[in-house]
Amino acid sequence: MATITTPGYAHIQRQHGRCSTTAGRRGASNSVRFSARAVSSVPHAAAASSAPAFLPVPFVPGADAPSPSGKSAIGVPKAPRKGEEGKRLNFFQRAAAMALDAFEEGFVANVLERPHGLPSTADPAVQIAGNFAPVGETPPARALPVSGRIPPFINGVYARNGANPHFDPVAGHHLFDGDGMVHAVRIRNGAAESYACRFTETARLRQERAMGRPMFPKAIGELHGHSGIARLALFYARAACGLLDPSHGTGVANAGLVYFNGRLLAMSEDDLPYQVRVTADGDLETVGRYDFDGQLGCAMIAHPKLDPATGELHALSYDVIKKPYLKYFYFAPDGTKSADVEIPLDQPTMIHDFAITENYVVVPDHQVVFKLQEMLRGGSPVVLDKEKTSRFGVLPKHAADASEMVWVDVPDCFCFHLWNAWEEADTDEVVVIGSCMTPADSIFNESDDRLESVLTEIRLNTRTGESTRRAILPPSSQVNLEVGMVNRNLLGRKTRYAYLAVAEPWPKVSGFAKVDLATGELTKFEYGEGRFGGEPCFVPMDAAAATPRGEDDGYILSFVHDERAGTSELLVVNAADMRLEATVQLPSRVPYGFHGTFITGDELTTQA
């Protein structure tokens, strides 16, 4: 195993302490005070790139409302709201708002929530401490300082999504509950031209801004136990009284990013995607909720797969309320949607990711399921069903219906993310590369067990229905590997390398690794003491080539934060030899986030 460590940096003196809660106010500075203890206790951010779609709110497709403006505030008001909102509410609505606010503060908050301690998985003091804390928006900053040399072929925008709550939480909060914010760096001709970060203007965020407070339930942090039921009842009551409108979506768009058919789409699996446009000056603007010209009438998971050979975008949608619990569909390169393939499942299941091969989609049906009735017993609706046998379904990409799917059992397997898959015709096997996580539900529910994420090769024999799996790394090199990618030009085809975040000390990311999937050889790039990052983004040398000159011929881009200096950077690392090529100094703090993509210069010129 080879290890490469970044050169040391001068440290700026900084006062240490608990993360300042004023960072939650969007008018506040991006600066926060850090406590290493608080940051180290934050549960894993990158292992799940989005809030799961178990918010029990009816999905209603529709056009976006006009963007309102409102002043940011926090807390549960105890008096009628005044100003803009008061003018547009009738007498009945104002009375209903006062009554529901009083119920929230007097019963939900004071009786159901405050007397009971929050688990660490829903405690905002843990979940958004340190560099997990939110930041304000940053308009384009120009001519960023660069140390080293950025390869001139890198021409485009590196964009990364993440959860960034606009308001301070009033109750439980999980990292995945935050509002979506995209960070973008424009690179051209060896220069880092600009950096900007902006909220994705979801219908949910716009309404909460106008109301001056959080109003929509938080899918993980709030919706558990009896208080979760009460907050759902509040939500439905406010919607019934016209105090808020869920018909334009309830999602946060904070997890995945994909560029398809001229559009950068920000996604979380609780809603339709949102289109975000990169402007000519490097800024970001939300175009709106995107339903593929009226073709998409359901939520879409945050990890659609873009086939590099056909240009098709493959996707899943799951539902936790009603059957069918799972649907598969795809979009042609021009955006035309296929018919849905309804995949029968016995119970609603968390399916955050899936894989494609040249001819198939590979769908996990694992043991983390949704049981809303658990809330009546005081628990979380996301549970580990130990009686269920995990399995993978292999379905032809253009199947007419689910009768063409072959299921293969893979007991005690839970992969939150899958990195690639391919077919091996001589053995009738589909090979799946993923990170097997144990305990499977520990991201959502407290556990005393140490969380492990083991890079694994899973072989599915579609002829015999048998499976095998092996840990790719030898025991002596075992390390938690999460969030990353293979060369996107080879997605769905056999790959030799994967580039994955080293999620240690868990849940922080201390570097990334280049893994030889055949031999298990591991080459680490370490960020250095007190420095942590997130997902490595592989940029191939020739982004449009169907067959790259070399699979590892490209560069890795990754945001890194120095917790002692309080500064953030973008690193450019040669993917072949894992050597640092350049460091871009960023003008403001970049919180740890989720998933990103690289949009080429040619793609930027063809944005819709």
UniProtKB/TrEMBL annotation:
Keywords: Dioxygenase, Iron, Metal-binding, Oxidoreductase, Plastid, Transit peptide. Fe cation binds at residues 303, 352, 417, 595. The keyword tRNA-binding does not apply. It is found in: Plastid, Chloroplast. Transmembrane segments: none annotated. GO terms for biological process: carotene catabolic process. GO terms for molecular function: carotenoid dioxygenase activity; metal ion binding. Binds 1 Fe(2+) ion per subunit. The keyword Ribosomal protein does not apply. Residues 1-26 are annotated as: Disordered. GO terms for cellular component: chloroplast stroma. Its cofactor is Fe(2+). It comes from the Eukaryota. Belongs to the carotenoid oxygenase family. This is 9-cis-epoxycarotenoid dioxygenase. It comes from Oryza rufipogon.
